[in-house]
Amino acid sequence: MNALCSTILMLAQETAGHGAAAADGHVASPLQPVLFFILELGAILAIVGMMLCLYRMVKGPHLADRVLSGDTLAYQVVGLVILLTVRMESTTYLDGALVVAIIGFASTLAFAQYIGNLKRQTNP
Amino acid sequence: MIWATIGDIFSIFFALAGMFFMFVGAIGVVRLPDAYNRLHATSKCSTLGIMGLALAAVFHVGTLAVTTKAIMTVVFAFVASPVGSHMLAKAAHIDGMKPWDRQLSDELQQDKDRQSGKSPSNAPRGLNAPTQAKGAKPAGPDPTARMSAAV
Amino acid sequence: MIWAFLLNLFLTVVYVMLTANTSTPNVIIGFAIGFFVIFLYGLTREGPTYPGKVWRLMRFSVYFIKILTQANIKIAWECITPGLTQTPRILRHDVSDLNDTQLTVLANSITLTPGTLVVDVSDDHKWLYVHCMYAQDRSSAIAELRDLHDRLKQEVFT
């Protein structure tokens, strides 16, 4: 708890100095350091979630398990990029999120076609 | 100032909700027993998780470009995720993935067996088998209807 | 419905180009004017009006978001508490009264809701095979699907 409070205070000082330096038009709310702390927590949670997906991808008993863990991994990356957008307050990163989502969807469809045709090829 | 504060309150709430559902989706992918159950966890990750995080971005940044891109991302996730889940589940069933041993019944397998003329190989098994036998079995589809073999 | 909405967007674009002002309030004013014009046009015709259709669609959206959140919290609780209590089952659901577009929308809505997942569609498009996560009682699981089915048919495709 003590470490958490000191982290919040440190973030508050950082953002206060940053806001004073770049105070041209954009007003920062007093809740912004709390939001930024939550965003860093979210980045850690997303990375842990990606590791869980990788565990399922390595261990999965069936091929479909591996493919769906890859799908979930793509969505975790999308969430991470959106968190980066909120942190940087920039609009360009959301294009990256959309591209990752499209690539994950296309790979899922390709692997689903492959799994569906697998049994017909081995024993017709 | 006051609008930025209100926007940040909403942003914190939606960011927390989105992060929670993302992480729980990843936990579900690890913990749930077979591929059908894991697909439920994937759909949770891609609906409320992405929607919460995108709403957090909209409330914090709040420009028109971010709003449009966030809406595009959410709409794409809502259209793409059920299509992917459906194709993956269908492919897993065609490939003959062994379901969880506590699954109550598999009426798709029964219909496939009936159409191919085999005896029902997928009899109810596991713990709760009598519950399935107790209920009246509904009328299945026409046995002459051909099932598609491809995805 | 979809053509009326596209016409509404087209009228908005025309208004914005006429006034040469792309700020957000101006776009909203153009959308409202287009909405009113299409409503006046719809009064000369039979059938449901455009605001009525939009209202029913919004009511269905609120209902869908509600059941989406409920199902999400249920599955999240299943994931984070120890022990597995779900009773999965693949059951068939009668969709012989829907055409192809309605069937696609229904299947996507069912799959978007966690707890239910469309596994297959029979080849004559009469049966939907749904993997339900909580289906200890078969008839109550079917009743939930039937509720979504009826609401979709009444409120979206009138």
Q: Could you describe the 3D structure shown?
A:
The complex is a heterotrimer of chains A (124), B (151) and C (158). Helix content of chain A is 84%, strand content 0%. With 124 residues, chain A is mainly α. By secondary structure, chain B is mostly helical. Chain B is built from 5 helices and no strands. Chain C is mostly helical and 158 residues long. Chain C has 2 domains: 2-43, no CATH class; 50-155, no CATH class. Chain C is built from 5 helices and 3 strands; from the N terminus they run H-H-H-E-H-E-E-H. In chain C, strand 2 (116-121) and strand 3 form a beta hairpin. The mean pLDDT of chain C is 86. At the A-B interface, helix 2, helix 3 and helix 4 of A face helix 1, helix 2 and helix 3 of B.
Cα separation of the termini of chain C: 10 Å
What order do the strands of the largest sheet of chain C run in, or round the barrel if closed?
1-3-2
Helix content of chain B: 55-70%
Largest sheet of chain C: 3 strands, antiparallel
Q: For the terminal residues of chain B, how far apart are their CA atoms?
A: 55 Å
Share of residues in strands of chain B: under 5%
Shape of chain C: elongated
* Amount of beta strand of chain C: 5-15%
Count up the helices of chain C. Answer: 5
> Radius of gyration of chain B over alpha carbons?
22 Å
> How many β strands of chain B by DSSP?
0
If you average the pLDDT of chain B, what whole number results? 77
Which structural class matches the secondary elements of chain C? mainly alpha
Q: What count of domains describes the coordinates of chain C?
A: 2
